[in-house]
Amino acid sequence: MTLKVYLSGEIHTSWREEIMAGAEGLDVTFDAPVTDHAASDDCGVAILGPEQSKFWHDHKGAKLNAIRTRTAIGAADVVVVRFGDKYKQWNAAFDAGYASALGKALIVLHGPDHSHALKEVDAAALAVAEEPRQVVEILRYVLTGRLPG
Amino acid sequence: MTLKVYLSGEIHTSWREEIMAGAEGLDVTFDAPVTDHAASDDCGVAILGPEQSKFWHDHKGAKLNAIRTRTAIGAADVVVVRFGDKYKQWNAAFDAGYASALGKALIVLHGPDHSHALKEVDAAALAVAEEPRQVVEILRYVLTGRLPG
Amino acid sequence: MTLKVYLSGEIHTSWREEIMAGAEGLDVTFDAPVTDHAASDDCGVAILGPEQSKFWHDHKGAKLNAIRTRTAIGAADVVVVRFGDKYKQWNAAFDAGYASALGKALIVLHGPDHSHALKEVDAAALAVAEEPRQVVEILRYVLTGRLPG
Amino acid sequence: MTLKVYLSGEIHTSWREEIMAGAEGLDVTFDAPVTDHAASDDCGVAILGPEQSKFWHDHKGAKLNAIRTRTAIGAADVVVVRFGDKYKQWNAAFDAGYASALGKALIVLHGPDHSHALKEVDAAALAVAEEPRQVVEILRYVLTGRLPG
Amino acid sequence: MTLKVYLSGEIHTSWREEIMAGAEGLDVTFDAPVTDHAASDDCGVAILGPEQSKFWHDHKGAKLNAIRTRTAIGAADVVVVRFGDKYKQWNAAFDAGYASALGKALIVLHGPDHSHALKEVDAAALAVAEEPRQVVEILRYVLTGRLPG
Amino acid sequence: MTLKVYLSGEIHTSWREEIMAGAEGLDVTFDAPVTDHAASDDCGVAILGPEQSKFWHDHKGAKLNAIRTRTAIGAADVVVVRFGDKYKQWNAAFDAGYASALGKALIVLHGPDHSHALKEVDAAALAVAEEPRQVVEILRYVLTGRLPG
Amino acid sequence: MTLKVYLSGEIHTSWREEIMAGAEGLDVTFDAPVTDHAASDDCGVAILGPEQSKFWHDHKGAKLNAIRTRTAIGAADVVVVRFGDKYKQWNAAFDAGYASALGKALIVLHGPDHSHALKEVDAAALAVAEEPRQVVEILRYVLTGRLPG
Amino acid sequence: MTLKVYLSGEIHTSWREEIMAGAEGLDVTFDAPVTDHAASDDCGVAILGPEQSKFWHDHKGAKLNAIRTRTAIGAADVVVVRFGDKYKQWNAAFDAGYASALGKALIVLHGPDHSHALKEVDAAALAVAEEPRQVVEILRYVLTGRLPG
């Protein structure tokens, strides 16, 4: 069994690296959005030309990023969505809804303080974790049947 | 032509009523989530029995609400998602992603200050409006071809 | 909002009647399998001719019943599956899996003593109820937003 | 031609090993659920933290297991579901219904004493076998056209 | 419960009329191909202009008829396919395959002399009947639970 | 049998009115894009606010129109696409491709001088007509089996 | 570009071998049903045990063969269906309908004497060929753009 | 991450070669229609025999080409559609609509003079580029996160 995992959401901490390092040796491949914040914000105008309006500046960039994110979510078996402490992170919740409607196995990763605000997202998930380490343990268990400890 | 419209998102202002009143006479039907905040939060335990843990209290309620929201979004032609000024509103963004993956016509409704944070959601939409009145005008135009003014 | 509800599973108690009576006045329609046990067992040979082998006797009947059950589950918004105290009831669990793969809103109805054996079925459900009354309350809440009491 | 086969159901006898050994040399890959009963029961709390209620203990585990089973059934060409002599085995029947709704080729494996209780499941199958050896012979025939003996 | 039934296949006997007459009073609607053989053969050139080649004469007609047959099969719950004694009737078998891939409930109607030649078609069906009367009885049973006699 | 027909393409002649008048008395409903050229071009900015760039002016309008066209094509049984003598009409060809991928019955309507340029579109159609009258005759034949004359 | 081609239909001449030999060097893989007529007829009882009734003897075999044919058609890009001079060949027409409903590229291969009887099947095809050599030429053209001669 | 890209549309300039050369070293594979204009026009009659009518000559060729184009679009993650300065190019717009309905990531490539005529096509795209170089930059950004310059 092989798993294709997409790591969506928060891009300001090293949670993706922790999961990828922890999953070394498992039969799993990872995809993720572009996590270079500046590149992600400006890709549209950098490639397709400048916009006077901030709205269309953002719009062109968001659509380029969608080429990557929708393709990757569509190809994934498992979608992990991480919510951090800052920002609105509506794109993370959007990805969770998108993945859910496609029937992907959804794992949500967030601290307990967000539980009430994320209850609808969590209700669509097959696992709600607090730590990247738990996501690694889930992947190991799903792929090998081995539990931690 | 008839349109089935689902009104998702913010439940603290009267935007739904404004849209429904404005659309009177058009060949359109509206659905919405349960907008009684207390009922929506407690429905799970009120019907299926109490939980000691707040997480499962929320979880049972969120799932009951999902019976309504997923059925209604699945049946809708157009999904309008409103983002207000307060709270995380991750369920609204989740609904937008869910509707988008199902290929529903998406209309996003929010103030200009949220444009950057909502750029991924807006990029998936067929219209981004700021006022409920504009949603009414969209529905009227789509159904009758008549423009405002 | 209208709901089409399919009532699958146990056919030896009056739970369907209780739900239908309780839901009177709500905008809901109900379907169910043929609940006349003898007719359900013998319909294949009664209509299409006798079989010497019990296996094919059963097989012809099960397929005729599938015309009804698969059509009705396919058309339903909500599928309620009731597990009673007796028999293997594998057809009920089969219906639950079938409904789940189609993305139907699943409500499972069973006593607490079956919780461990039904954990995989419950994990796919949006509600796990113990009493027909609770199913009525769910339907009322989903359709009207009103809670019991 | 290559076949991806998922072996669902009973985990207390060596039927999976018999099939995999018998199919050696054929162009077939096998997946299965976690068959370590204790790990399968406790995986949720072992990874995601303890629960006071047995229901949620089971629930968290069943959902983690669903990450594996749904992904594997979704990827399979053929789903074999084995019903043994003991327990309710509702998860096996659930998998059969789930696979059937996805249009997977379904093979059911059980003793003749279960035929009446499994008639709805058998009616959805492309083969009903009694012995693991027969499943091997089916796979060999489907892949190579060669019959036993 | 309502059933939409499509009556495909042989157009030289009155089997459709027998079924429709027998089903009077049941909550069922019937569709069928154009059964006027000459109109069905010549519709393409009669409407869209003559062809010198017989192949394209037939081709234009077959495509016009497909507007009706594919739309009706797509909308049906149950597809009945009747094989008679004469002609190749490949369009009937084509319709059966088409309906089967769409997951429609398939009922095949033919005499016992065709059983071997139709074994692949029958294997995809939920019922194999010999007489139109039996189709009526199936529809009555599926809709009302009542058996004949 | 009822048909839902979407009339896509050229908006400068009265072909839609001819078809609708000719089809009077048939069990058919028609939808169409907004055919008021000025309204169709300016709807985006008229409702959602002005744009400095012509590109985004057009873009906002095209997306509003897509709410209507995609919903209507998605609901249609038959999509008629008319190509006239002037303009690029790429939206007409886009609609034809969109309808074709959804499996809709496609009727293309154009003069013989466009046959070579439209050969890929015609190849996806179930009928290629030159006159609105022929579309009426097709609808009448499909619905009633009656041929002209 | 790689093509997966399924070769359905007539099993009494060497047309499959001709196509496979002619396509040597092209980036194409072939699948086919079991073409050993006796094995194909008897596989059900040979593996799953004897039947007294010829109908169920055939039925069990047809279902085993369906494991192979439906899996292979589902995985194919192109389905070639060959109709020969003898027998009813309803399974070939069934496969054509099945493939057509799944949106597979369909190539029909038959002599001109069958054109009228196969007009509905041909109308669903992207090519109608008379000789295996033409199918090879189609595959070469589709894969490489090179025409014969 | 790997991308499968289909390059549809204009066949008279070297834009495909520019993109493929520019994308060297990226994890991307390209498909395209047959770009030999004469072969593409005559393939039908060259392989399947001559036609007296130009319409059917074109028709047979367009269908053979559809075997390639529909298979390749169906397998693609990204579809790039290029509109040039000459000809009607309705097949390009058809491909764009087809790809859009399948949910493919659509990139449209055309000069600014075509913006108004292509507004409906652009509205369905995730990027609108003017130069092949920009498409290369999009692919590099999507695959690696690196921006030009």
3D structure, described in words:
- Chains A, B, C, D, E, F, G, H: InterPro entries: YtoQ_family_protein (IPR019884).
- Chains A, B, C, D, E, F, G, H: This is YtoQ family protein.
- The structure is a homooctamer of 149-residue chains.
- Chain A is an alpha/beta fold.
- Chain A is built from six helices and five strands.
- The first copy, chain A, has a five-stranded parallel beta sheet with strand order 2-1-3-4-5, sandwiched between helices.
- In chain A, helix 1 (15-22) packs parallel to helix 6 and helix 2 packs across helix 3 (54-75).
- The longest helix of chain A is centred in the middle third of the chain and has 22 residues, at 54-75.
- In chain A, 57% of the residues are buried.
- The mean pLDDT of chain A is 97.
- Chains in contact: A-B, A-D, A-F, A-H, B-C, B-D, B-F, C-D, C-E, C-G, D-G, E-F, E-G, E-H, F-H, G-H.
- The E-G interface holds E 54-55, 58-59, 61-63, 65-66, 69, 83, 87-102, 112, 114-124, 128 and G 54-55, 58-59, 61-63, 65-66, 69, 83, 87-102, 112, 114-124.
